[in-house]
Each structure stands twice: as C-alpha cells, then as structure tokens.
Amino acid sequence: MKFGGTSVKDAEMIKRVASLTKERYNEGVEVVVVVSAMSGTTDQLIQIGENLKKRRKQEAHDLINQIEDRHKETAKKLLSNNDLVDSVLGEVDEIIGELRLLAEEMDNFIDRSFDYLMSFGERLSAPLLSAALQDNNVPSKHLTGREAGVITNQCYGSAIPLSESNKRIKESVLPLLEESVPVITGFIGCSKNGDITTLGRGGSDYSASTIGRAIEADEIWIWTDVDGLLTTDPRVVPEAQTLRRISYREAMELSFFGAEVLHPKSIEPAIEKNIPVRVKNTFTPGFEGTLIVKDEEKVEGVVKGVSAERDVALVNISGMDIIGTPGIAADAFGALADADINIIMISTGSSEPTISLLVDEKDLSRAIKALETEFSDNTIEEITHDPEVSVITVVGSGMAGTPGIAGRVFTAMGQEKINIIMISQGSSEFNISFVVKKHETNSALRSLHEEFRLDKKDYKL
Predict the structure, then answer these.
(1) What is the pLDDT of residue 461?
(2) Is 189 helix (H, G, I), strand (E, B) or coil?
(3) How far is CA 440 from CA 152, 308, 357, 364, 420, in A?
(4) 247 pLDDT exceeds 80?
(5) Given this model, what pLDDT does residue 460 score?
(6) What is the pairing mode between strands 431-437 and 382-395?
(7) Is the pLDDT of residue 244 over 70?
C-alpha cells in the first residue's frame, strides 16, 4: 500500500493511515507500506535548493527550521507512547542535522546533490508512520529505498530501478513481513555506487510498483486524495465519474497525457507480473476506487476517458529542403535524444515543409538550443515554438475497430470553434491525441465529455 503526501499531511491523517494499515494487518494480510513526504515538504526542499543556488543560505536554513518544527510537532500530536515520541524526535534531529550540513556544504549544485536534497521529505515521514503503527500495537520497521534494495541507474532526478533490485528487495523486505509491517520511503533509490537517487514524477507510485513486483504482491494499492481514475479532470467537469475498472494500457494512455492520479511508468513493474493495481481515496476508504488490470473491458459508448496535458510546448522545424530530403527528421530526433529530451508527439507530411514536435514545456529552451545547434548549417529555414498549447487525449479500448470515433471527436471540436493544431493516433487505436491552444483546453474537455456521455456511464464491475 502506497500513501501519498496528502494522506500523511498531518497527525490526524497519519493516524488514519495507521488505522487503515492495521485493519489489513489484523485480517492476516501481509502489508508493505510505501510513503511519500508530508504534503508541502517536497516544495519546501525545492525552495531550499533554489535558495542555495542563489547563495541565500539564511533563507534555506529558515525553511529547514520550518520543516523541523512541523515534523516534531506532528510527532508530539501523533504518538501517545513517550518512548516512541523520544525515538522519533531523535531521528528527526539526526536527519535535520544531516540536511543542515548539506546546506552548509552544497556550493557546487549538481544533479546528484539535488537528489540527495530531495530525499529528506520521505526520510522524515517514514519514521512518523512507522511509529504510529507501533503506537497502535502493530510491529513496524522503517527503511529508506536504498535500505529496501531499490537499485537504480544514475539518471538523477528520474532514475529507473534496475533488474537486480528484485533480488535485493526480496532479501530485504520479505523477512520483515514475517513479523512486522515495513514502512519504506517512496521516491528514493540508490545507484550502484551508493549515491541517493530519486525516481522523478510519480516516484512513490513507481517505488510501490517496483517493490510489489519484487515481492510478487497479490495487489498494489495506491492511496490518494481522489476516488480513483476519473473520466476527466473534475476541476473542469464536476460531473466526471470514477472508472471502476480499466486496463493497464488505458490507464497508461490517460496518465501519459495528463491524468494526474498516476504516472504511466508507475504501472510498468505491475504489468510485468500481472499484478492488479487499485487506486483508492484515503478520505473515503470504503469506496472501491479504480481497479487497473491486464484485460480490457469494452463498454457501451466506446470511450472511457478524456485527459489534458497542459505542460507541453510545440516546436516547428520549417524549410523547403525538408521535402524529399532524407535524414532531416532523424537528425532532429537524434539531437533531442542526445539532449535527453522526450518527444511526446510528432507530425510530418509528405508535402509539408514542416516537422512539428511536442515536448515537455520545461524542456523547451533546451530543445530549441539542441535543434539550432544541429541545423546550424542552414539545412532548415527556421525553428519556431509555441508554449501556449495543450494536448487532449481521448482513450478507450473499445475505440479499436469502431468507426466514426475520430469524426465525432473533430465534429465536437468544430462545433466549439476549437482549432486543431496537430493530430496523432496510435496504431493500437486506443487513443486519439490532438493539440489545441491552451486557453481552449477546458472547452475541449467539457465538449468531449458531453459528446461521449461520460457522465452517464456505468463502470461498475
């Protein structure tokens, strides 16, 4: 079971998490808990990093003091056993002391140092939750991802667990299950040379799935602050419904293009072992949530969900030499790959003197620089960009082989007078993705949700 930041945001929520865990433990279920940092802590650590980059050490230490005070106050409110309080306060002192030392010594701000800095949130929350379980008569031991055996590559900030993690996690975690509930820090691993690494966006979910795969769990439960995967963003469409059952592939498509509950890579380890993933709400634990499984379940109406990814940017490579000249696209893709930039969508045409690429907005400046360097010989005429775009994705396994879906999608956009800038459909036919101007995103979501009557679907198992 993985609990996100809002699930452990304060003493009351940690008590709730401990109670939910105890219920499973008392039922005779072997439980491993993966925990995120308390909500807001990761943002504070990012701020600390920014202050240290700008040599504002006092501001960094002020934030460290806030983090220390919050975790110590939480421990005092959370625990009734004085020995446990003293133990946790001692651990917090030790971890905060390490953080202060890092802040004093971190003059050269490299990726490895930033991962080390970002690890402190989970390292502070895990002792609190483990102690809360012990306070509820549930034996527990907390471990960092490194201690649990999560070995990764050295891609700092978005590290990927290596296959050898499976053996190490089994050796570290399975013996503990015989007598306790292990509480493991999400988001954190370590490289082969022992450096702390972080798994990037969706990192704690990725940790849970990686650990679940290694110990061959029966199910992986992701506890969050929503009722599961929804048909669309409820902040835009209040009538959005919970998807009771969805396939791995559909969940990955929705997540890749903007559904924020899961990151697509977090499901990959579960897929390898065909482990069901259930997404549940810590605030409404009685609700069944969303079950993510291998097999697709076609539903009447074909489409299951509509998502939007706003943090993207469009890059256009233009020039008459593009037409009929081999290797231009390959050179562009190679330049971006060398710069470690992921291409989200691609659009080319046999008679169009333009290649259009969609990248993550945070990578835009690096993408432009990489392409300008690659084509400095004037092979192309210009490189333009537009960060004011979003990508809309319509997803459903029933779309495969069902005629007329694309027509309905684009007719709905036409009726709303929304211009489609770029289109992509995968060969699986599980999704249709297209790019619109950012200010038209909400209108597109509302229109498609209504067109496919997603507020009327019955997704019960």
Answers:
(1) 36
(2) strand
(3) 40, 11, 20, 21, 10
(4) yes
(5) 43
(6) antiparallel
(7) yes
Determine the longest span between alpha carbons in the chain, in angstroms.
76
Structure tokens at 329: 């696209």
Contact status, residue 298 vs residue 29, Cβ threshold 8 Å: no
**CA 443, CA 308: separation in Å to the nearest integer?**
11
- The token pair at 236 is 């835009």
How far is residue 119's CA from residue 137's CA, in Å, rounded to a whole number? 28
CATH code, residues 2-218? 3.40.1160.10
350 or 332, greater pLDDT: 332
Note whether 396 and 304 are within 8 A (CB). yes
Instruction: Collapse the DSSP code of 132 into the 3-class scheme (helix H, G, I; strand E, B; otherwise coil) and give the result.
Output: helix
Query: Mean pLDDT throughout 268-289?
Result: 94
Q: Which fold has domain 305-456?
A: VC0802-like (3.30.2130)
**Phi, psi dihedral angles at 175 (to 5 degrees):** -60, -35
**CA distances (Å), 3 to each of 14, 196, 198, 263, 283, in order?**
10, 21, 17, 15, 12
Neighbours of 306 (CB within 10 A): 32
If pLDDT is split at 50, 70 and 90, which confidence band does 266 have? confident
- Residue 406, Cβ density class (10 Å: 0-12 exposed, 13-18 middle, ≥19 buried): middle
Angle between helices 82-105 and 111-118 (to 10 degrees): 160
Per DSSP (E only), the strands in 320-406 are 343-347, 354-360, 382-395
More confident residue, 234 or 15: 15
pLDDT in tens, 4-63: 999 999 999 999 999 999 999 999 999 999 999 999 999 999 999 999 988 899 999 999
Domain-wise residue ranges, the chain? 2-218, 305-456
Phi, psi for residue 76 in degrees, rounded to 5:
-65, -40
Q: What 3-state DSSP class applies to 319?
A: coil
The pLDDT, as a whole number, for residue 263 is 74
Neighbours of 410 (CB within 10 A): 15
Distance CA(433)–CA(422), nearest Å, equals: 8
pTM: 0.87
Residue 371 near residue 361 (C-beta atoms within 8 A): no
